[in-house]
Amino acid sequence: MFGFLKWFKLRFVMLAVAVVIGVYRTEIQQVLRNLTDRYLDHSDGNKAGIPLQFQDPNNEASVNLPLFTPEQLATYNGENGAPIYLALLGEVFDVTRGAKHYGTGCSYNFFVGRDASVSFISGEFDEYDPETADNVLTLKPSDLIGLATWKDFYTKDYEYKGKLIGRFYDENGQPTSYNDQYLAQLEQAQKEKTQAEQLLEKYPGCNIEWSEATGTRVWCTPTSGNGKERSWTGYPRKLYSRSTTNFQCACVPEDQVDTLDAAKQVNHGDPMFKPYDNCDRHATECFYRV
Ligand code: HEM
Fold first, then answer.
1. Which residues contact ligand 1 via a Cβ below 6 A?
2. Nearest protein Cα to ligand 1, atom 2
3. Residue whose CA is closest, atom 9 of ligand 1?
4. Is the CB of residue 252 less than 8 Å from the CB of residue 235?
5. pLDDT in tens, 108-149
6. How far is the CA of 239 from the centre of ligand 1 (A)?
7. Do 288 and 211 form a contact (C-beta atoms < 8 A)?
8. Ligand 1 closest atom vs CA 119
9. What region holds the Cytochrome b5 heme-binding domain (predicted)?
10. Using one digit for the tens of pLDDT, what is the confidence trace for 159-200?
11. pTM for the predicted model, two decimal places
């Protein structure tokens, strides 16, 4: 009698477990996937024999990873227990671990199953147009640097899965001429950024304030720009760089101001200094309205 009761209880418990597994199948899959991810993250990848270099999209070894068509990529959308993938600059990453950001109904679900690189800069998450969504050459040089930073983020934080056939890679996984163009523009943007940083070391920024009554006021002090004390104050000048029509205010040392104003250019014509309109060339503060 007791034997039968035990057997009956056991059958009942097993039935209940089966029902629970059936109902929560998707959630259980998700939990198991997270646990696996966590294990892989925290275990010593090399000791466990996991070839970490395969996770680097810039690594030659990654040519062995799969190529995705846009249609295939679209199926990795997190629905019915599917993993969540997104592409950035033609590189595919598994972001299932970030389901709280990318899952259905979450803030960044827009990026899932597609390459929407431009939206990483524009912040436009409503309309998806496959013709323009990854056309990053329409972006400003500084935005290309922003995109490269996003790519570094995904390379570091998520698993690299392969390449997307399309704008950046052809059917053989080879970089397209568009990709070459993107890389060339990125390199140029990085060079210009470094150049601008070096210039601001040499010609530190001005203090700046705005009021309804006077408009924008820019002025130089011995610590303006980088907060470091220097032996000179300098005169405010509009500093233009080649890639942008915008300018920033830089303090030019007294002993260079005449030469720079006369030359109108430095460093082989790249950046250019201009005096502020209606401001004495030797004034330490200037006012302007945009
Ligand atoms: C161009 C605009 C933006 C883009 C492309 C963007 C993109 C993203 C992405 C992709 C993630 C997920 C990162 C991951 O996988 O861990 C994220 C997380 C997050 N974003 Fe944004 N975001 C933008 C603007 C904003 C703004 C304006 C706010 C705040 C008002 C914001 C707040 C957050 C927060 C709080 C998180 C979660 C951070 C965490 O839990 O670790 N984002 N963002």
1. 95, 98, 101, 108, 120, 123
2. 123
3. 108
4. yes
5. 999 999 999 999 999 999 999 999 999 999 999 999 999 999
6. 32
7. no
8. 5
9. 68-165
10. 999 999 999 999 999 999 999 999 999 999 999 888 888 888
11. 0.70
